[in-house]
Amino acid sequence: MSDVTVLHHAQCSTSRHALTVAEDLGVAVEVVQYLKAPLAREELLALLAKLEDSPADLVRKDSFFRDRGLDAADYTTADEVADLLVTHPRLMERPVLVRGERAVIGRPKDRVAGFLQG
Asked: N or C of the chain: less Cβ packing under 10 Å?
């Protein structure tokens, strides 16, 4: 049984890196492919409550974000971020690692090992 959950996107090299680090450290993880099974609003709010990063950090401000005319200033609170990610799950930053009541975004990559070992 794993005590760490990784919200994972298989096409993301940083997300794959997190799984490799976990394997190298011998840490069993539960992998949740959040694009195949998107999180509900309540699950996102629970995740955001655990997140050591700011709610805004959970949103990718990539070309998909910009192409929709979205403004980062509109997505700073947990409620705003949860509403956005329910509509556009692909905008969730990845990977996200969760252990108990703590969660971190695995960017930059060097955050992963410290979280997994802690």
From this structure: N
